[in-house]
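Hi, here's the filled form for the chain we discussed.

Project: internal
Contact: R.S.
Residues: 288
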Amino acid sequence: MALPSKLTLNRPNMVENRGETWRPPVFRPLTSVKDQLVARVRRFLDLQAGSIWTDLSRLLPHCQGQVLDVGSGAQPYRPLLHPNAQYHAVDSSRSEQDFGYAMPETTYYTGDTWPVPDSSVDVVLCTETLEHVPDPGTFLAQAARCVRPGRHLLLTVPFAARWHYIPYDYWRYTPSGLDRLLNQAGFTQVAVYARGNAATVACYKLMALFLPLLFSRSPRAWVRRLSMGGGLLAMPLVMALAFLGQISLRLPGGDDCLGYTVVATRRLGAGLIGNTADHNQPQHSSQL
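And the returned structure, exactly as it came back:
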């Protein structure tokens, strides 16, 4: 049933949006020197990706034992792990269809229950995935089910980020919201660290005015060529903004930030708070 004309605005209804005018390239595995060089350039220009890499490069080398990467995509942070870590990747069976990722050495699954035994991993890694999960409570309960008591969840989420992978982008989380969700799922000692500050966000948003020109998805070739030309002309300004943004990332995080890096510990004891998988179901065979 349509809304009465007096209860509408003279702007598009965003719920009806099913596509993006631009999308940056998907991440690629770092399998060659060229891949590593391209990734370095991207981390300089993409302040979100760069800030995540900086945080994880400080945290992941300390992660040993069984490491489960959930929503692993192209597994871009695998090289940061400690040499003694045993890496395992799982992702949704819709990963390629919805996000463009299909990787070897990844276990793809359907439904809400991860194909991982209870209390079998030491670290659950989940980067820029939770905003794409329709039911974050169930998802985090799966993390609590799989990680051993006293071991850790390492999570990143965006905050000042555009609506992306439309329509599969559902949430933006605050520190208090993350703390509440994680405690309900069975985690404790929740630490939420801001990535960037108002200056970082300002640079990021100004860059967002120009970078889309390089990745136009217009069906018209002349529009794509014109956009590319405009984007190339703007590159000196984009580089200057990226430089200032990288400097700002060295300053303390603020209330207005690019996103959050979260570390939480699985609560000791058998009981979990919140939604968990039905333990009357047959257990999954171990992939670990």
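Let me know if anything looks off before we file it.
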